[in-house]
Design brief:
single chain, 190 residues, mainly alpha, two-stranded antiparallel sheet, elongated
Length: 190
């Protein structure tokens, strides 16, 4: 999971929940990887459902407050992974290099021409997800920046010199072109 810095567990609720430490740093529910070592999945699952009902009037965010309580209730200590890589907000300059970009709040890639222009790889992944039968918001925007043109023009972003060098790397561009080719192949089947 990623830390939800600078917020605490208490920031996820309208008022403190008795029996829990509200000052514990919050973790974000946008990125969660669970493996079999957690055990008792069914018990955690049922506890979370009951906690949603029990604390519904206190929740500020959908599932995140409940996950934070579940970690305490079951004495689970998540491994925290770097937010800048695994759950980076799109407005950060490092977002273009992130493995997962978190389009939190009202700004969604399928609603914003600006985000679409900056993160067309994520848009194409979303189109591929929908094409493979995935659900979620339908993408109504049609503008995509072709990565082959971006490579030729070297127009990725106005970022620091450090990130420009990383963005120009052949490996990154080859990965983007590979994803673009796969998506175009899937879209051509329609």
């Amino acid at each position: 999971m990623t830390e939800d810095y600078p917020w605490t567990v208490g920031d996820n609720f309208l008022q403190p929940v008795p029996g829990f430490n509200m000052r514990t740093p919050s973790v974000c529910s946008a990125f969660i990887v669970v493996d079999d070592s957690v055990g008792n999945h069914r018990e955690i699952y049922e506890w979370c459902h009951e906690a949603v009902v029990r604390h519904a009037a206190l929740l500020k965010l959908g599932d995140q407050p409940i996950f934070n309580l579940a970690l305490q209730n079951f004495s689970l200590r998540p491994t925290l992974v770097p937010t800048e890589i695994w759950q980076c907000m799109p407005e950060r300059e490092t977002a273009i290099m992130a493995r997962v970009v978190h389009f939190g709040g009202d700004e969604k890639i399928w609603k914003s021409e600006a985000l679409l222009a900056l993160f067309s790889e994520w848009y194409r992944n979303h189109l591929e997800w929908l094409n493979l039968g995935g659900g979620g918001a339908e993408v109504s925007l049609s503008v995509c920046l072709p990565f082959r043109e971006l490579k030729e023009r070297e127009m990725l972003l106005e970022a620091s010199d450090h990130f420009k060098e990383k963005l120009r790397s052949q490996d990154m561009m080859d990965r983007l072109i590979h994803i673009e080719d796969k998506v175009n192949t899937l879209l051509a089947r329609e």
